[in-house]
Write a structure and sequence with these properties.
single chain; mainly beta
């Protein structure tokens, strides 16, 4: 018997908006940004353990992975979805902040999943950025009913 998958909404602390694959695209390279909760599967994610520290974060609608574009090590590099290529730029560590939120750190760059400029509007882009303790780098995992 197969273990059921738990899907999550990944919610930015500063805006209460969700990690979202733009226009529910299933294409490699589709952009990831924040958007208000609309109940669609492009805002649902599941976690696949890689080892004892890291996970692949997978979009429910496309089965593609949360990925730092071009395996960049630069602050401000874009985050997108892409097919699994076993790269460290597709591995993420959840660091508990102790109050129900997580910093989500990329294995390759050691930088955090971040809403660019702490934007609060729909469509604010998601990037990687060095850790700074700000709320736009803190995320809550909300199980989908």
């Amino acid at each position: 018997m197969r273990t059921p998958v738990t899907y999550y909404k990944i919610q930015a602390r500063h805006s209460n908006k969700l990690l979202d694959v733009q226009e529910a695209s299933t294409a490699d390279g589709a952009n990831v940004f924040q958007w208000r909760d609309n109940g669609n599967h492009n805002q649902h994610w599941y976690l696949i353990p890689v080892d004892s520290r890291y996970y692949k974060i997978v979009a429910r609608h496309s089965n593609k992975l949360l990925t730092v574009e071009n395996a960049s090590l630069s602050g401000g590099a874009n985050v997108e979805q892409r097919s699994d290529n076993s790269g460290y730029h597709q591995h993420w560590e959840l660091l508990d902040t102790g109050d129900g939120y997580y910093n989500i750190r990329n294995r390759n760059s050691n930088q955090m999943l971040d809403v660019n400029g702490a934007g609060t509007g729909d469509g604010a882009n998601v990037i990687q950025w060095p850790a700074n303790g700000a709320h736009n780098q803190q995320w809550r995992l909300l199980p989908v009913n």
